[in-house]
Amino acid sequence: MSERSLLPQRPDLDQLRRRAKELRDAVHSGDAGARARFTAQHPAARLDTARLDTAGLAAAQFVIARELGFASWPALKAAVDADAGARGRELEFLAVSIRPGAGRAVELLAADPGIAGRSLRAAAVLGDVGAVRDALTLDPALAAAVDDARGWPPLLYACYSHWHRFDPSREAGLVEVVRLLMAAGAGANTNDGGRPRLYSALRGAVESTKPEVTELLLGSGAHPDLGQPLVEAIAHGDHRSLQLLLAHGARVSGSWALGAAVFHDDPVATRLLLDALTARGQDAAGAASGELVEAAAIASLPLIDALLAAGADPRTADEDGISAMRSAVRAGRNESAARLTSQGAVDDATDIDRFLGACLRAQRGTVQRLLAEHRDLPDRLTARDRAVIHHAAADRDTAALVLMLEFGFGHDARDEAGQAPLHTAAYHGNADAVRLLLAAGAEVDARDTRFEATALAFATVGSGEQDGEPGDWISTVRLLLEAGASRGAVWVSDKPPSREIAQLLEGYGIGSGHDDAARDENREFGADPGPVSDVPTALGDDVLSEIARHIEAACQEADLDLLASLLHPQVHWTGLCRTSAQVLDWYRLALADGTTPAVESVEVDRDAVVLGMTLTRPTEGTRPAPPHRLYQVFTVEGAQIVEIRGFPDRRSALARD
Q: Which CATH number applies to 393-524?
């Protein structure tokens, strides 16, 4: 008999100690069963039963050890410690196997090659077909069993696995493992219902770029829109999965898919999306026109050509009246401007547009000439104009940033998502830009208005999300820490840093659990809201209170027509939407995704309605993610909602200014 054969599945030494104390006490009280156990296992008790009356804890521990098949209590303790260590290594192995970056995962497997044989989830994440088949043959129910760490079944580990990247020979095994698990009962729509971060089998396959798994899941009935995998396919440049999703009816209209293709400058994805709209009889030309202004500022000529070929109007303008032509000029993209002109666009660029473009191209002579010709030009720059410095902060060539700081662009200019240039530079790992901005006086712990995060948090997230892309996140993080950056809330659990940055943070004493202890401490940054009552104020009889009741009803009952009647046409949702149509599309998409809102509180605060709510989604095959709690602040002017902002708690919602 193996010494470990009688141990419980997850042995707990404290529990075993309690069992020993209970056994000792039962023996002392004369319990016949306890005394029989003692005499059966303890040699001294067999020789002299009188010793039972004075048996100590050590003797009881010896009996417990012998009953579990061990020669002694120290031998049992060593086995329990070894089991705990093995489980810890397995948990770490699983964690690093579902993230990019092969280093630690490969190290752990090399140190423990037999790890796949000890649990189905480890075998699944490795694509070990033999181990998975053997485990399911013994117990098919294991295909649906969830673990304690994440509440995941083996299917999610196989779908999110990156081992096909670490070792390409494992790709076919991962596909076969998914097939085996679904044949044993795992569902193609397996998901945890999480908001805003959903973990699902399909999204995992797309995020990790396994198109064969994507095809297998879709063919087995996976919903093509759950968690917006279309956007993930675009973000990861996976055109095969993108084609599969579109072929299975993934929604394009009303989603951010085309915007994502423009953001990632992907002409192929752009054409695929526009072709899908055309094939479905939807307004591809209108969708293309809607993206042209943004594309003119950030995208390549092939992408702009794809939009124009789909019928985009070269004279189109955004809600602020800025045309695609002006957008190209003010971004310093003269080639794009020329292409638009050749397609019929009118050159309506202003002196400010040309000034901004010259700054971004680091054309000092042109900048000086324009300032000499238009001496009032700096005074006419809007907040949106000044936010162009973010393009320079993201660029590896810091010449434009140097020029813009010299000519009066603020190091604290916020973009439409509420980020400062330091956030942008840190996210992109642009260490030179971080150094320049800090030297110019940028506040190291300034927080953006969307995530309430510091530049250091943006740097850690950027290092993970852009792992493998150009960027010096090590120098960026060091610069921020040496400048006195707060160490709290910089390790975002669902957006972990790259392995190198994780090791660097740990070297500074910042571990993955550091943020829990520091969360309350970090609320001191930003505006101090003063005392906040735990009880929301009651609604009155004024106009704003009446609007609050309508907002509550619209959200509680998912009544988009009622919500539409409350929105200003140019309502601004920070970082997400700039028109009422976009806001309604966002809500429509969330509802179609299965999101269920539950309003918990509603109150009027100054010129706004503050709505406390939770969002949930249906789950399948996993431990459900906890409800996502948030506070939405609806600013009202003239009986219409003109701005929407989201906050993680009531205190920050009331301190929004």
A: 1.25.40.20
Asked if residue 520 has pLDDT above 50, the reply is: no
In the predicted model, what is the mean pLDDT of residues 528-552?
A: 72
Q: Cα dihedral sign for 255, 261, 262, 267? A: negative
Burial class (CB in 10 A: 0-12, 13-18, 19+), 632: buried
Confidence band, pLDDT 50/70/90 cuts, at residue 7: low
State whether the Cα torsion 295-296-298-300 is positive or negative. positive
Residue 348, token pair as written in the block:
């309506």
Pairing of strands 608-616, 628-637: antiparallel
Note the pLDDT of residue 528: 40
Where does residue 5 rank: exposed (0-12), middle (13-18), buried (19+ CB within 10 A)? exposed
- DSSP-H helix ranges across 299-388: 301-309, 324-330, 334-342, 351-360, 364-373, 377-380, 383-386
Length of the chain: 657
Residue 637 has phi, psi (to 5 degrees) of -135, 130
What's the mean per-residue pLDDT of the chain? Answer: 88
Q: Is the pLDDT of residue 531 over 60?
A: no
Give pairs for 443-448: CB < 8 Å, separation 24+. Answer: 443/412, 444/480, 444/483, 444/484, 444/485, 445/484, 445/485, 445/486, 445/525, 446/412, 446/420, 446/422, 447/525, 447/526, 448/417, 448/418, 448/419, 448/420, 448/423
Residue identified by tokens 């590896």 is: 396
Angle in degrees, CA 260, 466, 594, rounded to 5: 45
- Annotated domain spans of the chain: 13-71, 85-186, 393-524, 543-654
Give the C-alpha separation, 518 to 47, whole Å: 59
Q: What percent of the chain has pLDDT over 70?
A: 91
Helix (H, G, I), strand (E, B) or coil at 630: strand
CA 494 to chain CA centroid, nearest Å = 5
Mean pLDDT of 411-423: 91
CB 160 within 8 A of CB 208: yes
Q: What are 366-393's pLDDT values in tens digits? A: 999 999 999 999 999 999 899 999 999 9
Shared fold status for 393-524 and 543-654: no
Q: Is the pLDDT of residue 525 over 50?
A: no
Asked if 519 and 488 touch (Cβ cutoff 8 Å), the reply is yes
pTM more than 0.85: no
What class has domain 543-654?
A: alpha beta
Report in angstroms the alpha-carbon separations of 374 from 330, 370, 379.
16, 6, 10
Residue 66 in this model has a pLDDT that exceeds 50: yes
- Between the alpha carbon of residue 434 and those of residues 133, 406, 458, 481, 483, the distances in Å are 52, 16, 12, 12, 11
